[in-house]
């Protein structure tokens, strides 16, 4: 059989890691930074994000408006970003390990290639030249050069709603015969990552970001990550054959559901302490039919953090016992608590 012409298959890897760039490999989004500091500002950007969220504007049009608001010469934009954008703390170690272990990293981005390349070279050094980047581009406006005031414009990758449909690059890898097809990973943080995430074998979704919400809504399996050190640990275990992508995805989804249910129980409890018992009982959410129908309530980071540890159960019940002096309220509360815990178990079964 003819060797594959797909860029990441040159070295016949067993694994390929696709990743979003902004907010995933970097700690903050470079396009947001440009818009907030050199374009029309944070307030208008957030308004535009809301328009997209409520489907009154396409992601593509919203993003075009943000980039059009930046009149600064392109070389100055790059310089500003190089001075301000930082890598995720674990990415360099991940990338070095992936290189040594024949795991190509392919960046699929809604940003612009020259900016991504410049940031990677600055943050990773010359090895960054090897990284394949699939993204939007930049071009001069009529009669201008990109490095003069108002001289550049974004050129979208394709005709999709997002300007770059990230699944297009991955689809040909899916078509490879089983003997050649690598195991594919994806890491991302936003809604434009969803189409790509559906095409790969294991999705790492950044904790507390939009992608998690969309995955829950659409029942796309995922595992959460906070930084690339946890991605590295998981990929190492998979590469060593200690676990596999299906197991990690199933464990990740289960951990997320339990955490969310417990966080909501904690919040609902603290919110309802001042309510009479009957309200306390009836205000409890019923067990959701599926993870996709479950709507997480916003909870404080300390509650989220506490709910991650099993000892939090002990603390939670001790505090609640002390807080409830009235016995009828206690009975109502305890029934409700156990129904919450039972639903967590049902969902993970
Ligand atoms: Mg992103």
TrEMBL record:
It comes from Lachnellula occidentalis. This is Putative phosphatase. Keywords: Hydrolase. One of its GO terms (molecular function) is phosphatase activity. Signal peptide: none annotated. PANTHER family: PHOSPHORIC MONOESTER HYDROLASE, UPF0655 PROTEIN YCR015C. It comes from the Eukaryota. InterPro entries: HAD-like_hydrolase_phosphatase (IPR050849), HAD-like_sf (IPR036412), HAD_hydro_PyrdxlP_Pase-like (IPR006384), HAD_sf (IPR023214). SUPFAM superfamilies: HAD-like.
């Amino acid at each position: 059989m003819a060797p594959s012409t797909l860029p990441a298959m040159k070295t016949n890897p067993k694994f390929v890691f696709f990743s979003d760039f902004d907010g995933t490999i970097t700690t903050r989004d470079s396009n947001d930074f440009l818009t907030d500091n050199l374009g029309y500002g944070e307030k208008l950007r957030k308004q535009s994000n809301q328009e997209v969220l409520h489907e009154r504007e396409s992601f593509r049009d919203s993003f075009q408006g943000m980039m059009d608001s930046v009149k600064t010469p392109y070389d100055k934009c790059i310089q500003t970003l190089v001075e301000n954008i930082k890598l995720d703390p674990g990415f360099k170690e991940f990338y070095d390990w992936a290189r040594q272990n024949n795991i190509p990293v392919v960046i699929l981005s809604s940003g612009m290639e020259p900016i991504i390349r410049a940031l990677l070279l600055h943050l990773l050094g010359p090895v960054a030249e090897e990284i394949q980047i699939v993204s939007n581009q930049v071009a001069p406006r009529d009669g201008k050069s990109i490095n003069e005031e108002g001289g550049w414009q974004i050129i979208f990758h394709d005709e999709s709603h997002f300007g770059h449909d990230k699944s297009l690059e991955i689809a040909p890898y899916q078509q490879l015969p089983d003997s050649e097809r690598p195991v594919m990973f994806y890491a991302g943080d936003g809604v434009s990552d969803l189409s790509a995430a559906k095409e790969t074998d294991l999705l790492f979704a950044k904790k507390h970001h939009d992608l998690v919400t969309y995955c829950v809504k659409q029942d796309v399996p995922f595992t959460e990550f906070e930084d690339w050190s946890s991605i590295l640990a998981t990929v190492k275990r998979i590469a060593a054959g200690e676990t596999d992508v299906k197991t990690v995805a199933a464990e990740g989804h289960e951990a997320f559901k339990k955490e969310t249910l417990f966080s909501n129980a904690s919040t609902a409890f603290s919110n309802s302490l001042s309510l009479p018992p009957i309200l306390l009982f009836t205000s409890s959410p019923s067990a959701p039919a599926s993870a996709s129908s479950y709507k997480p309530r916003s909870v404080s980071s300390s509650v989220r953090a506490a709910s991650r540890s099993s000892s939090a159960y002990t603390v939670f019940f001790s505090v609640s016992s002390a807080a409830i002096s009235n016995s009828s309220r206690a009975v109502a509360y305890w029934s409700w608590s156990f129904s919450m815990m039972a639903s967590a178990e049902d969902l993970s079964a």
